[in-house]
Amino acid sequence: MSVKRQSVSPPVRRKDGRGRPSTPFLRERILQSAAELFADREFDLVLIDEVAAHAGVGKGSVYRQFKSKEELYAAVVIDGFTELQREIRSALAGCTSMRDQTTTIIRHTLKFFWTRRQFFALLRDPKALPPSQERQYRAQRNDLSRLVSDVFDDAVRRGAIKPGFDSRIAAESLLGMMRGINRYGREYTTPDRAVDIVTSIFLDGYAAR
Fold it and tell me: Are 198 and 174 in contact (CB under 8 A)?
């Protein structure tokens, strides 16, 4: 997961000369540092002190932007979701068949969440995330679901999928399969193997002969 880097300028002091000087792109620097650390280690093993040091800011600066490590982690995942969809759309441009399109979606989505299992645990805890973050995640996830259903709708129009196919239910089914594997099947499979299995199970019952 990547968070867009910004060039860092010297701190800018308030015009009235009072208060703490602001740091340009402070939130982006913290998110980038957190993304790099969470990508290397489990959620519980990353400390806010490390995030602050990696970003070159004080621990207080992190807590002024994010009230808890859970909130920071959620922000990293939600920001990454935007990049995930951008990557999927870019990769789909080079696909020539419905199977290739579906496999591309599965591969990118499975691998994105493979190291982010903790996020789903946070979603189940009503105290872990502020409502605004949960709404952001739901909106991003809905966008991903629409991306998948649009691919299926196009496949129906081209005759690659049988008429009468419910693309919205199919999209949710596919996302549900991937989420289930991420949560419960990690101990006995790998991302690459899971991509092959999900693609086979999902498509071979629906692909036009």
Answer: yes
Q: Is the dihedral of CA 110, 112, 114, 119 positive or negative?
A: negative
Quote the CA–CA distance of 108 and 204 in Å, as a whole number. 20
> How many Å apart are CA 61 and CA 65, to the nearest integer?
7
- CA pair distance 98, 104, nearest whole angstrom: 10
DSSP 115: T
Distance CA 92, CA 73 (A): 28
Contact 72, 48 (CB under 8 A): yes
Query: Over the stretch 91-141, which tens digit does the pLDDT of each residue have?
Result: 999 898 999 999 999 999 999 988 888 888 788 887 888 889 989 999 999
pLDDT tens readout for residues 26-57: 999 999 999 999 988 888 899 999 999 999 99
This prediction's pTM: 0.78
Rounded to whole angstroms, how far apart are CA atoms 6 and 78?
Answer: 18
Q: How many CB atoms lie within 10 A of CB 115?
A: 18
- Amino acid at the residue 39: A
For 10: left if phi > 0, alpha if psi spans -120 to 50, otherwise beta; the answer is beta
What does residue 173 show for φ and ψ, rounded to 5 degrees?
-65, -45
Residue 17's CB is within 10 A of a number of other CB atoms, namely 7
Residue 192 to residue 172: CA distance in whole angstroms: 21
